[in-house]
Design a protein that fits this description.
Length: about 160
């Protein structure tokens, strides 16, 4: 199971680097001198073990891809339950992707994928769609009713909610 997760992370990394182009190397980093904080900083990631760092970097790339697809690919929807399981199998705490350096890194990947949105959406499905070659089932095609209405169209309506 760990070998499969490591392989998936490596392929995800290859996808991210291939589709991100030169921006992958320009991922934002934390400033050198941070101002005094009023809250304690999160615990630093384990250092030294290159396998752990690869897993964490792969998780950041995967999170960036999921965020990108959710916002930029109109025909796609991420399977967040599957995403959480994949991240857990990589040994990364989901909270680490919601704050701190890994979140910043994942945001950098999301931005890099926007450089060629159509191609990035296509490649995301090739690698992570229902029959993806990297981690199948992370993405699904939206059904016609799942697509968000165009907010600028005159007939756009907010989604209906059921009364409880």
């Amino acid at each position: 199971m760990m070998k499969q997760a490591l392989s998936a992370a490596c392929v995800a990394a290859a996808f991210a680097v291939a589709s991100a182009g030169p921006l992958a190397a320009e991922t934002p980093t934390a400033p050198e001198s941070a101002p005094a904080q009023t809250t304690p900083a999160p615990a630093p990631a384990p250092q030294g073990d290159p396998r752990v760092e690869r897993q964490r970097k792969g998780a950041a790339k995967l999170a960036g891809m999921i965020r990108f697809v959710d916002v930029e690919c109109p025909d796609a929807k991420p399977d967040y339950d599957r995403f959480k399981k994949v991240i857990a199998s990589m040994g990364v705490d989901l909270k680490d992707l919601e704050q701190g350096p890994l979140m910043i890194e994942s945001l950098g990947y999301s931005e890099a994928y926007k450089k060629n949105t159509a191609e990035s959406c296509k490649r995301a499905f090739e690698h992570f769609g229902e029959s993806g070659t990297t981690v199948p089932g992370l993405l699904a095609h939206k059904a016609a009713g799942d697509k968000a209405p165009n907010a600028t169209s005159p007939d756009a309506k907010p989604p209906e909610t059921k009364a409880q």
